[in-house]
Amino acid sequence: MRLIISRFIMKNNKELIIHTFIGLLIGYFIIHPISMVIYWFQLNTNEYNLSDLFNVFLGNFKHTFSLHMMPMSVAFSILGATIGFGSGLYYKSIKRREYLLYGKKQLLKQSIPSLIANGESEFVEFKSSLRHDYRQIKTDKNLEDVILKSIAGFLNANGGTLIIGVNDSGEILGLENDYWSLKRKDKDGFQQRLILLVANAFGKDICTKIHVSFHEIEMKEICTLYIEPCRHPVFFNEDNRTIFYLRTGNVTNPLTTSETVKYLQSRGSD
């Protein structure tokens, strides 16, 4: 039983042990000797030629590991081990974050088909494309405003998920037509275009509330935007008008000025 526990501890703290051990070696074999050589040169201001400097360096380096210097060696070893331990903790935390992020992505990937199957709701909306008009079979940049209105609606409500590449009935259309309309014809170009649109429409700070991911379903790539609710109202400028959009039920609607004021007052009193 003790052996099993020991193996479990070793396995789960492997990074800490390795980093600590490497730090100990660095402290003993590198930091300590170099610090002692530097200290010696600070006390001796005589001039030396290149060969003398090498001999002095080598002599002091060897002297570092003598028996009477052992307490100092132990101190530097502990210092190195402590630094290594801290490095191990940092590395382990990064690795854990990556693992959790991977787990969340996998969970989201598994939940996307069920989201699509359940249809649109207060928190889920489908859009066929970013800028490709399937009716007229051509690129229409005006469709980008439709995406921005949906994003504004979620920002002003309770947040939600916007899926691009899926039509209203839940059919997977993919993003290939959108890709071909971009300068960079891939998902990176698609994401860059999305972020640029959001930044120009609502400000760069709003981009932090929109999390973009891509998923392959039925051999077609779709884009999922997880949108956090915004604390302050977000307005969309359309035809020289400032409009407040809100997601209510499974519809994103523009509110009149009086409706916007009432809604913001009710939200502020919550």
> What order do the SSEs take from the amino end to the carboxyl end, as H and E?
HHHHEEEHEHHEEEEEH
Q: Strand order within the widest sheet? A: 1-4-6-5
Main sheet record? 4 strands, mixed
If you average the pLDDT, what whole number results?
A: 84
Low-confidence stretches: 1-9
The radius of gyration is: 31 Å
Residues in helices, as a percent range: 55-70%
Commentary on this structure:
The chain has 270 residues and is of the alpha+beta class. It folds into 2 domains: 2-104, no CATH class; 119-268, Methyltransferase, Cobalt-precorrin-4 Transmethylase, Domain 2 (2-Layer Sandwich). The chain is 56% helix and 17% strand. It has helices spanning 2-12, 14-43, 50-63, 70-118, 143-156, 176-180, 187-202, 257-268, and strands at residues 124-127, 132-133, 138-139, 160-164, 210-217, 220-227, 235-238, 241-248, 251-255. The strands form 3 sheets. It has a 4-stranded mixed β-sheet. Strand 8 and strand 9 (251-255) form a beta hairpin. The two termini are 55 Å apart.
Strand and helix map with partners:
Blueprint: H1 2-12, H2 14-43, H3 50-63, H4 70-118, E1 124-127, E2 132-133, E3 138-139, H5 143-156, E4 160-164, H6 176-180, H7 187-202, E5 210-217, E6 220-227, E7 235-238, E8 241-248, E9 251-255, H8 257-268
Parallel strand pairs: 1-4
Antiparallel strand pairs: 2-3, 4-6, 5-6, 7-8, 8-9
